Amino acid sequence: MLRLHFTAADVARVRMAPCASAxxxxxxxxxxxxxxxxxxxxxxxxxxxxxxxxxxxxADLYRLIPATRxxxxxxxxxxxxxxxxxxxxxxxNDTAADLxxxxxTSLQLAxxxxxxxxxxxxxxRITRAAIAHWSDSLAPYWTQIRACVATDLEHRSQTLAAAGxxxxxxxxxSGISWTYPTLSIPWFTDVDLPLCGRGLVLQPIYFGWRxxxxxxxxxxxxxxxxxxxxxxxxxxxxxxxxxxxxxxxxRARSRILGLLASTxxxxxxxxxxxxxxxxxxxxxxxxxxxxxxxxxxxxGQQVTHQLTAAGAVLYRTQTQESPA
Length: 324
Description:
Mean pLDDT: 86
Number of helices: 15
Largest sheet: 4 strands, mixed
Low-confidence stretches: 238-248
Radius of gyration: 21 Å
Distance between the termini: 38 Å
Structural class: alpha/beta
Number of domains: 2
Strand content: 5-15%
């Protein structure tokens, strides 16, 4: 059992997250892809998300996430809220390499005796894996996931307004119980955690299934990620075709990323500089835009494309030598 111990100041600082979290859904969805439970909810999602091809593309991330319960490197869930991979990828890749080393070695997820350059490359590989997992397993469903979390947040906010913090904490679900000053959470080990006036952020997650996740960073509010009360089965959006979401790092799209890394370009410019037909260039740009790597802006008859923050991170990291 994990017991969160509150002071009066902590109770006053209980609050809801603003919206769905890309980082928490990333962690929970990897765990969900490995579980046979809740098949009726994840039936239409698991075959593609949990396929061997999808796991291979995100292998460097999968290695860090326990299959069921356990500790995840804290830097994968930054306290700064990120509602898309476009926002999350730069946060992951801006993490200091020595912090990545500290967290991975303390969890015995990587050997410690490596150079600083090796750890920077390892961090970059993990970021690329996170982008691949997002493209394969979350981007095609993100509108639905975000709506489901928004509905849950609205219901919990109504509970908070009507019944106060006591009413909110007694209705979290997932076996969580509240008796002031302690919130008791089913856990894989026995832990007591004083909040010490830092407060608690409640983050509903779609892919949480019957158990909560917790992050406790010194100096920040503790985050409690809790399953949404109601899971709506996911349906892949019509435009999320496999050929658009797989192989984001293929040769043609890598060339487009390289071009846009140096300057924004129109569709015709992309076609000319990459020796593609305008139709092929448009198709690849659409896939990159849908994956959150490219943004497009129309001015009159011309559409100009440029890299998003996630696209810039991906291009920068994919051109570096990967660690063994």
